Amino acid sequence: MDVIRIRGGKRLSGKIRISGAKNAALPILCATLLSEGESILRNVPALKDIETTSELLRVLGRRVALDAPVVRVGSSGEANPEAPYELVKQMRASIMVLGPLVARYGTARVSLPGGCQIGSRPVDQHLKGLEALGATIRLQGGYIHAECKRLRGAEVVFDMPTVTGTENLMMAAALAKGRTTLVNCAREPEVEELGRVLNKMGARVNGAGTDVIHIEGRDELDPFDHAIISDRIEAGTYMVAAAAAGGDVMIEGAPLEDLEAVVAKLRQAGVEVGREGECVRVRRDPDKPLKAVDVITAPHPGFPTDMQAQFMVLMCQARGTSRIVETIFENRFMHVPELRRMGCAIDVDGHTAHVHGGQPMSGAKVMATDLRASASLVIAGLTVTEGDTEVLRVYHLDRGYEFMERKLAALGADAERIKGQG
Ligand code: EPU
Q1: Same domain, 277 and 398
Q2: Which of 59, 67, 230, 380 fits a 20 to 30 Å CA distance from 49?
Q3: Ligand 1 touching residue 123 (CB < 6 A)
């Protein structure tokens, strides 16, 4: 396995471009199951999760030509409505084929995703929603079996806003007979993006991006050609990296309007963030101390859980103690023990981390068990002036960050990938 080695202490400067959004591309790839013809996705990032989803679509009987940033998905003639354990266990987002499969073929068997490193992550809301649309759901042998001759529009009220749950139901409802109303929906920009794609396919989706979504289903849907929005979490990660390491960085294609909560916290901490043409400029003088600010993760438009680990590293540089509360996932502080090994002083009490900033940090060998935690360790490595940092288990990073070490190197960081060392 590869390792990312970082020699920290370099100020970052220059310009990078943000890639297409992983969490927008994944549901849109699943939406290709809803129609027969060839759909084209553009601005798709070259990531492991995209490869896994492409593989899953092939198993389901689609023809996939993946040549990032373009993916073409068409029919191979033979449909197979079973998503096997071997693929679903690699990527929980595979659950998003359930809605499209049962809507299109009247039957689906999808391996039930287990828990994951960041929490138990049940899918009960997906299943209850599909039942409301008329599907019969049975769990057997670790698989979800869903059946229904034709889904029918209905009202679904989610117990909590769930991103992939909302997306699964939107896709199912797009081929259901009649009108579906989804209430208490996730309002993430990726949900809104899926709404745009379903509208291109001929469904009538209103309200995607708000907490109530109306969908008028169709008997058949058309293929689409669509360029994916930029990845707000990737952009936020580089904004925090620039702030933590210090410097002056231009981030091209960063969707500032989708990052308001992160930008507000960066500014409160003393980081300059502003728009300059097509770019977002992030500036921080590393000789000036940052202010400690508190963060509570929340569904969009609140502070994203996917930025919590990275922001915690920034707070390790701040003067004073900041309180970081994780409200979305029950076990998303896996980066804390690794950060402590680098010298950070962080106490965890349930869902709250108290970060005592300003402690001397040094490079170490570290590893994380999820994508965003791994990104936080890379950022930590950029900030230390003593010793090298080696981030192991890089496959987590490769699931969600396109060419991370290359983008950082383009900003002047001393970061490189060492093949087969982890
Ligand atoms: N939940 C349930 N039951 C359900 C569905 C969700 O209890 O049926 C709970 C979850 O356990 C969690 C909360 O609801 O406590 C919200 O989870 P959500 O369903 O919104 O998460 P997700 O759809 O599984 C997506 C992203 C995650 C991101 C979360 C939260 C994709 C493919 N994944 O997951 O992204 O953290 O929303 O914003 O869109 C990542 O990219 O690193 C990542 C983990």
Answers
A1: yes
A2: 380
A3: yes
pLDDT value of position 116: 72
Q: What is the pLDDT of residues 231-240, one digit of tens each?
A: 999 999 999 9
Residue in 28, 92, 110, 164 to alter for ligand 1 test, most ligand atoms within 8 A of Cβ? 164
Instruction: Give pTM, 2 decimals.
Output: 0.97
Q: Last residue of some domain: 212, 227, 242?
A: 227
Cα 179 to Cα 192: distance, rounded to the nearest angstrom? 18
Residue from 267, 271, 320, 332 nearest 296 by CA? 332
Distance from the CA of 363 to the center of ligand 1, in angstroms? 32
For the chain, how many structural domains are there in total? 2
Mean of pLDDT values over 158-186:
98
Residue where a domain terminates, one of 227, 251, 283: 227
**Ligand 1 in contact with 121 (CB < 6 A)?**
yes
Same domain, 309 and 412: yes
**DSSP H or E run through 310:** helix 308-315
Provide the domain limits for residue 71.
Answer: 22-227
Q: Is 116 a catalytic residue?
A: yes
DSSP 113: P
